[in-house]
Amino acid sequence: MTNMQHQIVGKPLDRVDGKLKVTGEAAYTADVQIDNLVYGVIFQSAIAKGKVIQIDTSAAVIAPGVVDIITYEQTPSLVKIPFFSPQQPQPTEKDDNIYYDGQHLGIVVAQTLEQAQTAASLVKIIYEEAPPTVTMAQAEIFEPESIFFGIMPGKITRGDVESGKAHADILMEQIYTTPMEHHNPLEPSATVAMWEEDNLTLYETTQGISSTQRGICAVLNIPPENVRVISKYLGGGFGCKALLKSHTILAAIAARKVKRPVKVVVTRSQMYTSCGYRSQTQQHLTLGATRNGKLTVITHIGTSLTSPFDDFVEPVGAATTMMYACSNLEVKYRLARINAGTPTFMRAPGEAPGMFALESAMDELAYLLNIDPIELRLRNHADIDPHTQLPWSSKSLKQCYQQGAEIFGWSQRNPVPRSMRDDEPALKEGFPPQVTDEPQRRHFLIGWGMASATFPSNAGPASVKVEIFATGEVRVQSGTQDIGTGTYTVMTQVAAEALGLPSQSVQFELGDSNHPKAPIAGNSITVASVSPAVHKAASAARDKMIQMAIADPNSPLYESQLENITVELGQIFLKQDPSKRDSYTDILRRHGLESIEAKEETAPNPESKQYAKHSFGAIFVEVAVDELLGEIKVRRCVGVYSAGRILNFKTARSQVIGGITWGIGMALMEKTVMDTNQGRIVNANLSDYLIPVHADIPNMEVQFVEEHDPYVNTLGTKSLGELPIVGVAAAISNAVYHATGKRIRDLPITPDKLLYP
Ligand code: MOS
Hints:
Layout: H1 18-22, E1 38-44, E2 50-56, H2 58-61, E3 66-71, E4 97-98, E5 104-110, H3 113-121, E6 124-129, E7 141-142, E8 146-147, E9 152-153, E10 155-158, H4 161-166, E11 170-178, E12 190-196, E13 199-204, H5 209-220, E14 227-230, H6 246-258, E15 262-265, H7 271-274, E16 281-289, E17 295-306, H8 320-323, E18 329-337, H9 351-369, H10 373-379, H11 397-408, E19 421-424, E20 427-428, E21 434-435, E22 442-456, E23 462-469, E24 474-477, H12 487-499, E25 506-509, H13 526-550, E26 565-568, E27 571-574, E28 581-583, H14 584-590, E29 595-602, E30 614-626, E31 631-642, H15 649-668, E32 674-675, E33 680-681, E34 699-704, H16 728-740, H17 751-755
Parallel strand pairs: 1-15, 13-14, 17-18, 24-25, 31-34
Antiparallel strand pairs: 1-5, 2-4, 2-6, 3-5, 7-18, 8-9, 10-18, 11-16, 12-13, 12-15, 16-17, 19-22, 20-21, 22-30, 23-24, 23-29, 26-27, 27-28, 30-31, 32-33
Helix pairs in contact: 9-16, 12-13, 15-16
The chain binds dioxothiomolybdenum(VI) ion.
Dioxothiomolybdenum(VI) ion (MOS) binds next to loops.
């Protein structure tokens, strides 16, 4: 790069799409208006196990406005959907089985949404019912050979677990449990499907336009060139919009049948049955250590639940294998099938529940050994990846601990449980209320807890097209997604900086499968995958312009050397003699061109395979516990993260605040409740499924330890999106123990668990 480095990248630029969003101009999928549009409403199974005997649509079909009704009998399977299609064939034979409550059974299409809703309520389904399997205790547990559809083994070992146990002075064994949890993105899933001849356009709420394209092609058996997927704005994805779901299939099939565009918006309640969830987990953790706190053994056996037909494992041991230097380890997965849909990825799949267990267990061990929890972690710090034995591409976890502890004031902590108290002053009646000298009303136990965070830093191949126009404008296109995290903004920054232009001159376009290909926005890989490609393509476009000037006898830069030239504000000039200058617009005009373009593709550097690539962090919390009520309030949070180079401090900080907020919800509130007789989710709404509101969230101090990682990619960026949920639940549980002396190993930590142990 030229001397423009760091002029725009790294700055806390406001979201370039912020104004469009707050003014309502940004058209999300459900906002898409198309002529002749009709509305689809999905009808679902009301039992959790059995068979469909008959679907009686006679009353629905004559209801006002109804255009058509399509049942599962006329579609490929709506439950067995290929995940990483097209490897997995889509079952097409008719399957009358009911596998779970809420299973999609068909779609009613009508002129208006209300008419479709009314007609859907008139569809009568006659079942043969069977008792469902709902709980882990009822289910048969098995050990899968591999997890994530064959990507990872079902069991990971190193060293010798028995000898590790024999060498331990202290052996600690505990079971930690986390409940079923659901994603609750602000924007529910939605599809607008439109056919023109054999060509399908899908406006879709998706984290992966290409994967949606591949998936729908596999399901409908059509070639990819006939399918265009568009997703311009997403109101959060968090994993539930990563894989193809059945509402999309139904919308596409319905639109083809009725020959009109069909809009389907998944209702908030349907979000609990239609888009996946995080399985409940039961995690058996064993930590063995010497008296001075050196880990001799770790075993982590995670049991999670899946659907009757897909093996989806919540990979709770993902971080356990690499987190601490310990030569004897076993991580193993167990699965059981219940009558529920297939779980899916949910923010930091594996790490979020897994690090709750591991980082709670480390705190328990610290108490058993009478060692400060940070000190215990430092004594077991993994200087290299203990599993692959590879060096880290970069790791600043120690700095995260140190900075976090300093900001938080950790050295002031008295480790003895129940040693810290705080009294809330009583208030005098009346208005405005005044503090009195009367005896205090509420006595709070105060607890301080901490935990580590980690998330792998991966990337995939990405391609980008850059066009420079004679008008001075620049268009950059990549088939990536902005799931609400700020892709539009940071890619604009990267392109503008490489081109030597102000960010306002750059229009970054994404979310269209017609754009050059980029990976799914999942696994926190977007920035690390796409920003190197944006940088490369923008640099190529800039160099192309400079070469044109150098070769042009009419340019003041004629026959200059490329390396002596720089660009600022669209002006191309000699570094030594800025009076010798040209500009993108002048060059294009002299050549009679409207624009030039450059297209580049990048792939992860093969050399980076010789490094273990992870982001890290440390989270510190203060809780206040009202002992009489069992109420827990998080009062303070300090999170310090190292995730390589930060491209935009503002959007990065927002990511972290979102992640910690979700971590607080995971720790204290979130739990999907299933009726154990009916197998039905009973809190499928935002009034009964609790997530934090502003009043639940304290001030957060967020810091980054910036790293200059030369191995990960040309920009030195690492994963950030999923990192900050990791460890929060453990830090809170550890703080609750410090406050109360009660160790809660079962999430969420609700008041009843403190009051009735
Ligand atoms: Mo993430 S759970 O890969 O959206």
